[in-house]
Amino acid sequence: MAYRKRVIEKTLKKPDEFISAIGRMTLFVEENIRVVIIALASAAVIGGTILGVYFYKDYINKNAAGLEYQAMRYYYGHEDTAGSDGYKKSIELFEDLINKYPNSKSAAIAQYNIGNAYFRMNDLNKAEEAYKKFINKYSGNNILLGLVMQKLSYVYIAKKDYDKAIEMLNKIISDISIDGRDQAYFELARIYETLQKKDDAINKYSALIRDFPSSPWAAEGAARLGILKGEDKKK
User: Fold this and answer.
1) Which domain holds residue 181?
2) Which of 154, 70, 52 is nearest to 110 (CA)?
3) pLDDT tens digits for range 13-51
4) Does residue 184 lie within any of the structural domains?
5) Measured between alpha carbons, how far is 134 from 155 in angstroms, rounded to an integer?
6) pLDDT tens-digit profile of 109-136?
């Protein structure tokens, strides 16, 4: 009989503990009902806001991408208008994209291509302005930033403003976070060749080969370096 009594006592103890825990939880909710409601409401608002922002950004990026596609068709002459007229139309669409969707993924690409379109139209002043605008607004885009700075150096070369071109290329070389430093070395060396500064050109080609030995620009640089040194030997 004693054995049965102990079994009953142990069996009844577990649901009692469970009921007690539920009771304490219920009591806590009743006493703090306002705090609980506010916490649940806040969580719902935060969750809704996060979802809203996600869908809004997705909507913006999709619409911007549509405009980007239209602009690129004119840029490459796949519409009825080609050449200069195609570039002008693409610039209009790129500018419309930036005005409507300034925070989209396509906005930086649009600004870059505005500069490219003006450069292809040989409007060097507007190309320079567009590339500078990119640098001011989208300097955090390291992938495109190097390309834009490179293109800006081409604008200066076309204007025969070699001092500004050299300054821009040196900025690329000095910033390890920017892509295209190997090409910048090569272009800088070519400028020095144009200016008949052979020693400076040799130094830049040598630095290119040393710092970027596996780059295709290093192969080009090695060929130019061989020519320059060969000329020295002949002399």
Assistant:
1) 148-235
2) 70
3) 555 555 566 666 666 666 667 665 776 666 666 655 554
4) yes
5) 15
6) 999 999 999 999 999 999 999 999 999 9
